[in-house]
Each structure stands twice: as structure tokens, then as C-alpha cells.
């Protein structure tokens, strides 16, 4: 299933146009003229989508870039700022911390789920199509189906003073380390990260197991005959074969980490201090509470660029040849 | 398969079961809290000796569930059919009719594929204000249709690009025009791709939070996720009611998910390119 998507990467569409030549066939001049008119009128099919996209995405996007070059409180007159706002984004200590928070979240949203998912996938190899397999798949997909807001509420409760985590710690005699996990300076960001891990783990695991079941078993036979142990087998067979699936997992989860908003807003509102504030939340706060629309917009442009800088190389690496 | 050793398979199975348990625990913990008597301080996971199912009835009234369901349903009804239709048309135009210059339009759309919604939400606020649409459901519906276009068109184009062109040639000979061709031949063939897209757009709309809290103040005009955020703001200190209400708000999604479980998982796996 995922390979169907992989076979239509963004860059290769000019190469895969076998049908294009026949409308230009010199043997059929009538057809040619008729075909060309049809092809131009074909724009009617594309226009509704393009108009909606243009009005509600491209126009706001251009405006964001424009706002980012001004000092503006959203009401009065805007003052030209040049690149001042960008300078602030890259030098202000708080804003730099906020951006680095998003990168720390990548560890929890992306790396841990992909590594754990790989471990489980290489041990399980496939999930049966029977009722037990269906049950496992359904449960693991629950976090993907519920709103992130709900995940935030549920985990706020799990991490609270009387919550499940502390209850479990007390049960094994670790009363000493119980705390309000989301409220304390040192544990708040990792705790928010764990919520992300919980949301992403099931999706990554299932994606990787699906990829796993498509690997030709004879590759493993060959590896075993060559005397490869489970570890070498993992690096020689599993990892290269799952390149595409790993790429998809990383892309999805890194975007979710960098652009995170819902979970943080609900579980900590960015606190304590700015310990868990992420760019998405800061944009919201700057634009709508602090009335610093220009700075908020500069941060928004930077966030968009960061997402691209992180995601494009992964796409290139994992989808390159096929 | 037979080559995996028994111990490996056993470890794998244990991991998988652990994963299932960890996934379920937060839900169970919420349920256990929701069933405690109002005004008590619940602990993480406790067997309710005297389960207070009435808490759900209280939460139903407190959350104004009837109005919330209606609002979310209206927003979904505004976004999904139109979004799916115009994305299918555009996918058909770009993938099958191959309009001249189509790759430019497609490239423009791809720009939006990884765009965080936070990047456009501020100008959208002013745009909606100028249109006089703030605090109406239109303020959520219209931008969402636009924001879904990159993925939705990418998705439908990927389907149409693989449909053999001879199919249309044959229908042309029958004398049908492009419109008839689209509805009679291509839409029926695209049904699986359309179904997956419908499920994804439904889910993303129902769960949309950022646009809902920025563009609409009134919780009864928001999406389910936006309403849940307001509910937490209002009842955050009453943990029992908060858990009961959150579970209640989740129920419609869970029911739909369990009924269409197979299709959902398929769609989510295929659609995870966007996430």
C-alpha cells in the first residue's frame, strides 16, 4: 500500500508520462487539434481546487511573509521592520529555547517510536489476519483516531499527582520520585514527549510490520545460511528493505513534532515558564495575546522552513532509487 | 517465517501485548476516574466499588453534547463532500487529462503538503474577520477545504495517473463528453481512493483544534476537538466530570472507527504520508 505512494514521488512525474506522445501523433491531425482543445478546457477540472487553495492557503502564506517584515499590533498602523523580526527570532534566548524544545520533541515523537517500532517489527515479522491480529491493529490505531486534545487530557490525568504513573511508582516502593510530572521544571518536556511517543508508536509499529511482511523470506534464509545472527540480519536485510517505511514514519512524526500544538496547549500550556513552549504555541500567543503579529509571522515562516529543511532530505534519502 | 526462532517470536509477542496494554491504560484510567463519585479525589486506576454511571449523564448536559454533535456534523458536511469532489476533479485533470502546464499547478500544491497550519492561521484570522465570518462555522469550513487540497489532490492524482488512457479513448468513441466520462467511467473506478480520502478528511476535520480555537469563540459552533478544549477549560478542576465528558466526546469517533475499522486502518496507513 505504501509502495503505491512511493511509486508516485513528486520529482518523477515528467518521466512517467507515456501517454503524452499519442496526442501528437502526426498520422491523426484531427485528433490532434481536438485533443489540444480538450486539454486546455481540462483546466476547468483543476480550477475549483486551485482557487480554494489559492484563497485560503497561498494568500495567507504570502500575507504571513508580508506581516513578518513589519511591526504590527494587529490594529493600528504597521511599521516597516525589514528583517528585524527574523533577527529577534534567531537571537532572542527565549525564542531559541522554544525552537530547541521542538527539536527535543523529535526524539520522543520520531526516534523512540521508530526504534521501538523497528524492534517490535523485526521480532514479530507479521501480524496474523485472524481476530487477534485485527484486535491488535485496532487498539494500536486508537491514538491516531482520537483527537490529540483527548490524548492531552488523558495523559494530563495519568501524569498528575494522583495519576497512574505515580500510583505505579508507589506500588513498587518508589514513593521518593513521585511528582507532578507535567508541572516540574525538569520533567515537563520529557513528559509531553512521552504523550507524543504514545500517539506515534502504534502507527510506526504497524507501518513497519506491514513493510516487514513484504520482505522476501528467501533473503532471511540466505542470511541464515551465511551464518548471520539476528543482529547482522537486522542490519543486512531488515533495515535496507524497510528504508521507505522508515522514511514515511520519520516524515510524519517529525512534522508532528515540529508543528506540535494541541498536546502542549492542553497538557501544559507551555509551562512551567517556557519549559514546554513550542513554536506553534508561541506563534498563537504572540499573534493573539501579545499582539506582536510581525514577530509571530517571522516565527511562522521560520517554522515552515525548519519543517522543509528536516523533511526534504529524508524524502530524498529514502525514496531516491526504486 | 519458519526460520524465526521460537524465543524471538515469543519476545515479539510479549512486546506487542505490552504495547496494546500501554495504549489502553490511559483510557482505562480515565474510565476508572469517570466512575468515581463526584467531588472525590480519584487515584490513577482503581476498581470502582460503586460505579457512578450517572456521571456520564451529568457530563452530557454539562458539555451540551447535542449541540456539539450537531456542530461537528455540520462542519464535516461542509468540508468533506466539497473537498473530496473538487480534489477528485483536480486529480482527474492533472493525472488523467494532463492539462498543459499542469505540473506547475501540481508543484504549487506540493508546496502546501508539509505546511504547518500555524503558519497561515494569523492571516486567516484577519481574512475571516474582513469577510465577517469570524465565529461562524464557515470560518472553519472554508480554510479547511483549502488546506486539505495539497494532500487530497496529490492523493487523487496518484490514482488517476495509473488509469490507462485507452479507457477514455474507448469512451470517446462512444461519443460521451468529458463530464460523462468522469462520472460514468472514472469515478466508479476511483471508488477505493475516494473512500480512503473521505475517511481521512472526516477524521482530520472532526479532530481539528487550532482553527477551531482561533476562529470560533463559541464552543457550540466548533469541531469536536475544539469543543473538548473548551470543556477542559471549563471543567478542568472537576476531574471526575472532565474524564466522563472527554470519554463521552470521544464516543462518536470510536463508534465510527470500530464500524469502519478496516477501512480506517487502510486509509491511515496509506495516508500517513501527510499525517
TrEMBL record, chain A:
Q: Which residues cross the membrane?
A: 40-62, 98-124, 136-158, 188-209, 246-266, 293-314
**By its UniProt entry, which CDD domains does this protein fall under?**
TM_PBP2 (cd06261)
- Topology versus the membrane, per the UniProt entry? Multi-pass membrane protein
Keywords attached to this Swiss-Prot or TrEMBL record, sorted alphabetically, are: Cell membrane, Membrane, Transmembrane, Transmembrane helix, Transport
Quick check: keyword Manganese in the entry? no
What highest taxon heads this organism's lineage? Answer: Bacteria
Q: Which Gene3D superfamilies match?
A: MetI-like
Indicate where this protein resides in the cell: Cell membrane
Domain ABC transmembrane type-1, residue spans: 99-314
Q: Does the keyword Coiled coil apply?
A: no
Return the PROSITE patterns for the record: ABC_TM1 (PS50928)
Annotated region Disordered: the residues are 1-30
Q: PANTHER family from the xrefs?
A: ABC TRANSPORTER PERMEASE PROTEIN, INNER MEMBRANE ABC TRANSPORTER PERMEASE PROTEIN YCJO
What family is this? Belongs to the binding-protein-dependent transport system permease family.
What is this protein identified as?
Sugar ABC transporter permease
Record the organism: Micromonospora andamanensis
From TrEMBL, chain B:
- Topology of the protein relative to the lipid bilayer: Multi-pass membrane protein
Q: Major location, coarse class?
A: membrane
Q: Taking every annotated instance into account, which residue ranges of this chain make up the domain ABC transmembrane type-1? A: 69-260
List the keywords (alphabetical).
Cell membrane, Membrane, Transmembrane, Transmembrane helix, Transport
Do the record's keywords include Nucleus? no
Q: Where in the cell is it found?
A: Cell membrane
Q: Does the keyword Cytoplasm apply?
A: no
This protein is called Sugar ABC transporter permease
Amino acid at each position: 500500500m505504501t509502495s503505491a505512494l512511493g511509486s508516485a514521488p513528486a520529482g518523477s512525474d515528467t518521466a512517467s508520462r507515456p501517454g503524452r506522445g499519442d496526442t501528437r501523433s502526426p498520422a491523426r491531425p484531427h485528433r490532434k487539434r481536438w485533443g489540444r482543445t480538450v486539454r486546455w478546457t481540462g483546466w476547468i477540472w483543476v480550477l475549483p481546487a486551485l482557487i480554494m487553495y489559492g484563497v485560503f492557503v497561498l494568500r495567507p502564506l504570502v500575507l504571513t511573509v508580508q506581516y513578518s517584515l513589519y511591526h504590527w499590533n494587529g490594529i493600528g498602523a504597521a511599521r516597516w521592520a525589514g528583517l528585524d523580526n527574523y533577527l529577534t527570532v534567531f537571537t532572542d534566548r527565549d525564542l531559541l529555547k522554544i525552537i530547541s524544545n521542538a527539536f527535543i520533541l523529535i526524539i520522543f515523537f520520531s526516534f523512540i517510536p521508530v526504534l521501538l517500532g523497528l524492534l517490535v517489527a523485526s521480532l514479530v515479522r507479521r501480524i496474523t489476519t485472524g481476530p487477534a491480529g485485527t484486535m491488535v491493529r485496532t487498539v494500536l490505531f486508537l491514538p491516531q483516531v482520537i483527537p490529540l486534545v483527548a490524548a492531552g487530557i488523558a495523559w494530563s490525568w495519568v501524569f498528575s499527582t494522583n495519576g497512574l504513573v505515580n500510583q505505579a511508582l508507589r506500588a513498587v516502593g518508589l514513593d521518593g520520585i513521585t511528582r507532578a510530572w507535567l508541572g516540574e521544571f525538569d520533567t515537563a518536556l520529557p513528559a509531553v514527549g512521552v504523550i507524543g511517543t504514545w500517539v506515534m508508536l502504534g502507527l510506526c509499529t504497524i507501518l513497519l510490520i506491514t513493510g516487514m511482511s513484504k520482505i522476501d523470506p528467501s533473503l532471511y534464509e540466505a542470511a541464515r545460511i551465511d551464518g548471520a545472527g539476528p543482529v547482522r540480519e537486522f542490519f543486512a536485510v531488515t533495515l535496507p528493505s524497510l528504508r521507505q517505511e522508515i522514511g514515511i514514519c520519520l516524515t510524519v512524526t517529525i512534522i508532528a513534532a515540529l508543528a506540535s500544538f494541541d498536546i502542549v496547549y492542553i497538557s501544559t500550556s507551555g509551562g512551567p515558564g517556557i519549559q514546554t513552549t513550542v513554536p506553534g504555541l508561541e506563534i498563537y500567543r504572540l499573534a493573539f495575546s501579545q499582539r506582536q503579529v510581525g514577530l509571530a509571522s517571522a516565527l511562522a515562516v521560520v517554522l515552515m522552513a525548519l519543517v522543509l529543511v528536516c523533511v526534504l532530505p529524508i524524502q530524498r534519502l529514502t525514496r531516491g532509487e526504486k | 517465517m519458519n526460520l524465526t526462532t521460537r524465543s524471538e517470536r515469543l519476545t515479539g509477542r510479549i512486546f506487542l501485548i505490552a504495547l496494546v496494554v500501554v495504549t489502553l491504560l490511559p483510557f482505562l484510567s480515565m474510565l476508572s476516574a469517570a466512575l468515581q463519585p463526584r467531588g472525590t479525589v480519584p487515584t490513577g486506576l482503581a476498581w470502582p466499588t460503586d460505579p457512578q454511571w450517572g456521571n456520564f449523564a451529568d457530563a452530557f448536559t454539562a458539555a451540551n453534547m447535542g449541540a456539539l454533535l450537531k456542530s461537528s456534523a455540520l462542519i464535516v458536511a461542509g468540508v468533506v463532500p466539497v473537498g473530496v469532489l473538487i480534489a477528485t476533479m483536480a486529480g482527474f485533470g492533472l493525472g488523467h487529462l494532463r492539462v498543459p502546464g499542469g505540473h506547475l499547478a501540481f508543484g504549487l500544491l506540493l508546496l502546501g503538503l508539509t505546511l504547518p497550519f500555524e503558519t497561515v492561521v494569523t492571516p486567516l484570522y484577519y481574512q475571516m474577520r474582513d469577510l465577517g465570518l469570524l465565529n461562524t462555522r464557515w470560518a472553519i469550513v472554508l480554510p479547511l477545504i483549502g488546506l486539505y487540497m495539497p494532500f487530497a489532490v496529490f492523493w487523487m492524482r496518484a490514482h488517476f495517473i495509473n488509469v490507462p488512457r485507452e479507457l477514455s479513448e474507448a469512451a470517446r468513441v462512444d461519443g460521451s463528453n468529458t463530464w460523462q466520462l468522469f462520472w460514468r467511467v472514472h469515478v466508479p473506478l476511483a471508488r477505493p481512493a475516494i473512500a480512503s480520502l473521505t475517511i481521512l478528511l472526516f477524521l482530520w476535520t472532526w479532530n481539528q483544534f487550532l482553527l477551531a480555537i482561533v476562529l470560533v469563540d463559541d464552543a457550540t459552533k466548533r469541531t469536536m476537538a475544539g469543543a473538548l478544549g473548551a470543556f477542559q477549560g471549563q471543567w478542568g478542576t472537576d476531574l471526575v466530570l472532565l474524564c466522563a465528558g472527554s470519554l463521552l466526546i470521544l464516543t462518536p469517533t470510536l463508534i465510527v472507527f470500530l464500524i469502519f475499522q478496516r477501512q480506517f486502518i487502510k486509509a491511515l496507513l496509506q495516508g500517513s504520508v501527510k499525517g
